[in-house]
Amino acid sequence: MAVPTPHGVPDHPTTPQFPPELAQVLRADLAAVADEVEEEVRRQVPEYARPADGAYRQALRSGVVQALTLFVDHIADPRDDGDAIAATYYELGRGEALEGRSLDALQSALRVGGMCAWRRMGRTAEELGLDSTVVAVLGELAFRTVHEVAQAAASGYAEARLRSSDELERRRGRLLGLLLEDGPVAPEAVQDLAHGARWPVPRTVAVVALAAAPDRREEDRPLAAAGALVDMGSRPPRMLVPDPDGSGGIGGRAFTLALRGRPAAIGPTVAVTEAAQSLRLATRALGLMGRGVLPRQGVVRCDEHLSTLLLHGDEPLLGRLRSRALAPLGTVSAGQRDRLAETLLAWLLSGSNVPDVAVRLHIHPQTVRYRLRQLEKLFGDALHDPATRLDLILALRAESLHAREN
To answer: How far apart are CA 67 and CA 405, in angstroms?
Structure first.
């Protein structure tokens, strides 16, 4: 394993001829030094001060011994690259990441251990009567050794974090797929997948359907809102937001920033096992945004447009209702039809109050009465039948929404 060397530290420092017995003496003393280093690390680094189980204690002891061995090997043969020992520290770094500990703890342990080992070996060097030049180079070699094992551990730590992150994303993707699939969702299955994905199961969720934007750069992709599950590869892209009505949910500034200006439709808040229902309505709303039936830009909340979503829940059926209920208007010109349809809807929604219709449409009350007489001729007594009036309101409302598309 190739280990980079920090700026200012040569790969192979110039070393004087060490006495042949130095490496032999240090190697013989290695077990005692390892005991001292291990004790010092456990005393000064809180993360390593916990009561150790057998496997953990063995791993810590092995790491200390191997680092000391690498130092002595460099003395015995400066050409030795220590690949085997670097591999051991690579695995130690991976283990720290998998245990959920910070790399800072391991680096602190290496610094503390290095200083402790150097003090002990420095005393040995003095006892052997080595001159100051040799002792200085020994210190440089000790620094190089600590750096080598630290670099190996950092590489292992980074690799494990990357793999852990990728696996976590895969698990969250499977969880999102389960929550959004059609049909009943078993709470037990949700709990199992959520545990593996490190996702606290909320009481309620809402699904956000996002406008696809294939021309956007990668950095313009929406950020995940707090705790959200995101799938940008689906069509449309979607985001499942936990506890959407809470302080950190879809009403907060953080959520708006997470969208990065991308048009979106927010489905209704539902129980976590009913997320597919929220997705269906959000997807329908997003489609209506694209057609101009609902606002094309910004964020549309399904709960504020339920009647529109209901009307467009079955487009063919809605078309049949419009054709049947508004058939009498087919006998007049296009311009006249639009004016009569607008007046009829306003009249029905205002409780048949002519002055209110006039205010709503910004026309004279006499004009309203004139149009109503025309409507009486076209529809007859049906205008006063409650069931027909409901059909007319639905059909005329759909007609006005349809006009926005053109």
So the answer is: 72
Tracing tokens 């204690």 back to the chain, one arrives at: 57
Residue 57: closest CA among 42, 67, 70: 42
Q: 31 exposed, middle or buried (CB, 10 Å; 0-12, 13-18, 19+)? A: exposed
- CA separation for the pair 122, 126 (Å, rounded): 6
CA dihedral 18, 21, 26, 32 (to 10 degrees): -160
- Cβ distance 83 to 70 under 8 Å? no
Q: At what angle do helices 315-325 and 386-405 cross, to 10 degrees?
A: 120
**Dihedral over Cα of 148, 72, 107, 143: its sign:** negative
What's the burial of 232, exposed, middle or buried (CB within 10 Å: 0-12/13-18/19+)? middle
Rounded alpha-carbon distances, angstroms, from residue 261 to 85, 243, 356, 390: 51, 22, 39, 39
What does the buried/exposed string (b/e) look like for 328-345 if buried means 16 or more CB atoms within 10 Å of the residue's CB? bbeeeeeeebebbbbbbb
Between CA 388 and CA 21 the distance in angstroms is: 108
Helix (H) or strand (E) holding 283: helix 275-291
The three-state secondary structure class of 11 is coil
pTM of the model: 0.56
- Sign of the C-alpha dihedral computed for residues 236, 240, 246 and 252 taken in this order: negative
The closest of 327, 323, 313, 307 to 378, measured between CA atoms, is 327
Region of residue 24 (left: phi > 0; alpha: psi -120 to 50; beta: else): alpha
Cα(56)–Cα(78) distance, integer angstroms: 31
Q: List helix spans (H) across 29-82.
A: 30-44, 54-76
Contact (Cβ atoms closer than 8 angstroms) between residue 320 and residue 309? no
pLDDT in tens, the chain (406 residues): 343 333 334 444 444 566 767 777 778 877 888 888 888 887 887 777 665 555 556 666 777 777 777 777 777 766 655 566 677 778 778 777 777 667 787 778 778 887 887 787 777 777 777 777 877 877 787 777 778 888 888 888 777 776 767 777 888 889 999 999 888 888 898 998 888 888 899 999 999 999 876 555 544 556 666 688 988 888 889 999 998 887 666 766 677 777 778 899 999 999 999 999 999 999 999 999 998 889 988 899 999 999 888 888 888 888 898 889 889 998 889 889 989 999 999 998 888 889 998 998 899 999 999 999 999 999 998 888 888 899 898 888 888 877 766 5
